DNA sequence: AAGACGTCGCATATGC
DNA sequence: GCACATGCGA
DNA sequence: GTCTT
């Protein structure tokens, strides 16, 4: 239900379903009824409570079955699986008769969508940890040849120890790239230089977005039959590096927990900084941190490694 | 009853 | 050509 | 769709 709401453009309903599903999954006991779910679980209200009851009673959800038997919804869900295609583009095409990915190939696509169609199957395949390690080696080696002072971290589920990942999330920083430089919009073309190099060795095969702070693209390891993988490279100023590292290592759920703890203890935690928030709600200057552990220390909770 | 719900970089569209 | 809006991804 | 104001 959540995915359908998102593809319809109702992102807050999508969030509501995601929150409710998370609360349900985290609940230790069996839920005996929709009414109990509504009473016990934050994020489950009347409507989702009734849906839970329906599933308990009948094993299915009429509303969802209706959606899934609606050809327009089926097509909407299909088209939105192409990266670069969202609710607005999908709706436009469905109205003009597009039904399949093959149909989509004949339409006028922007560059991002062209790549999305080109690698439609590849991008849905998981990346085994062994391949993530190969990718990490290639990226780290190339970047250190460029400038030894660049710090490189592969974040996401890989850093949490997962046996497979959905994409490659690379976070970098450089001692000379500071908030001040960022604010002055100094042309710090680190990303461009890295991308040039990784392109030259044929590791990067396509680009989706190529800016001064953020790159999104496609990579392949140099092996026969290698699968195209989504890779992002983000550059953060050194002051933000550890909050960014924490944030992009996740998980999303862990981030929400930390953010909640931070608020309760009078702080605000984001990928950019951790700041004190006074009782009046006025935000103070960012607290400098030199490691992930220092952030946990400020929050007054025991440090847990990414894999925990 | 009504508004918030994360926020921002990048590509591209839109209007001047 | 520039300033701002929109779509999208994360 | 849910929660808060």
TrEMBL record:
It is an enzyme of class 2 (transferase). The lineage of its organism: Eukaryota, Amoebozoa, Tubulinea, Elardia, Arcellinida. Its EC number is 2.7.7.7. It comes from Arcella intermedia. One of its GO terms (molecular function) is metal ion binding. The active site is at residue 51. Coiled coil: none annotated. Its main location: nucleus. InterPro entries: DNA-dir_DNA_pol_X, DNA_pol-X_BS, DNA_pol_B_palm_palm, DNA_pol_lambd_fingers_domain, DNA_pol_lamdba_lyase_dom_sf, DNA_Pol_thumb_sf, DNA_pol_X, DNA_pol_X_beta-like. Keywords: Cytoplasm, DNA damage, DNA repair, DNA-binding, DNA-directed DNA polymerase, Magnesium, Metal-binding, Nucleotidyltransferase, Nucleus, Transferase. It catalyses: DNA(n) + a 2'-deoxyribonucleoside 5'-triphosphate = DNA(n+1) + diphosphate. Residues 1-308 form the DNA-directed DNA polymerase X domain. This is DNA polymerase. Its cofactor is Mg(2+). It comes from the Eukaryota. GO terms for biological process: base-excision repair; double-strand break repair via nonhomologous end joining.
């Amino acid at each position: 239900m959540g995915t359908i709401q998102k593809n319809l453009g109702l992102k807050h309903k999508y969030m509501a379903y995601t929150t409710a599903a998370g609360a349900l999954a985290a609940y230790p006991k069996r839920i005996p009824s929709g009414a109990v779910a509504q009473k016990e679980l934050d994020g489950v209200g009347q409507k989702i409570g009734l849906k839970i009851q329906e599933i308990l009673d009948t094993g299915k959800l009429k509303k969802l079955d209706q959606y899934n038997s609606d050809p327009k919804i089926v097509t909407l869900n299909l088209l939105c699986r192409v990266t670069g295609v969202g609710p607005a583009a999908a709706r436009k095409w469905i109205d003009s008769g597009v039904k399949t990915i093959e149909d989509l190939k004949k339409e006028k696509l922007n560059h991002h969508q062209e790549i999305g169609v080109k690698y439609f199957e590849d991008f849905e395949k998981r990346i085994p940890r062994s391949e993530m390690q190969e990718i990490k080696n290639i990226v780290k080696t190339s970047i250190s040849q460029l400038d030894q002072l660049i710090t490189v971290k592969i974040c996401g589920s890989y850093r949490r120890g997962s046996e497979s990942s959905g994409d490659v999330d690379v976070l970098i920083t450089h001692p000379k790239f500071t908030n001040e430089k960022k604010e002055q919009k100094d042309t710090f073309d680190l990303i461009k230089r890295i991308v040039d190099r990784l392109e030259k060795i044929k590791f990067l095969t396509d680009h989706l977005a190529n800016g001064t702070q953020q790159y999104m693209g496609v990579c392949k390891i140099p092996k026969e039959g290698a699968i195209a993988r989504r890779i992002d490279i983000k550059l953060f100023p050194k002051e933000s590096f550890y909050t960014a590292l924490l944030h992009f290592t996740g998980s999303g759920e862990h981030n929400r927990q930390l953010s909640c703890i931070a608020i309760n203890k009078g702080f605000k935690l984001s990928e950019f900084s951790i700041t004190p928030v006074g009782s009046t709600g006025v935000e103070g200057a960012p607290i400098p941190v030199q490691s992930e552990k220092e952030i946990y220390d400020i929050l007054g909770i025991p440090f847990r490694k990414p894999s925990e």
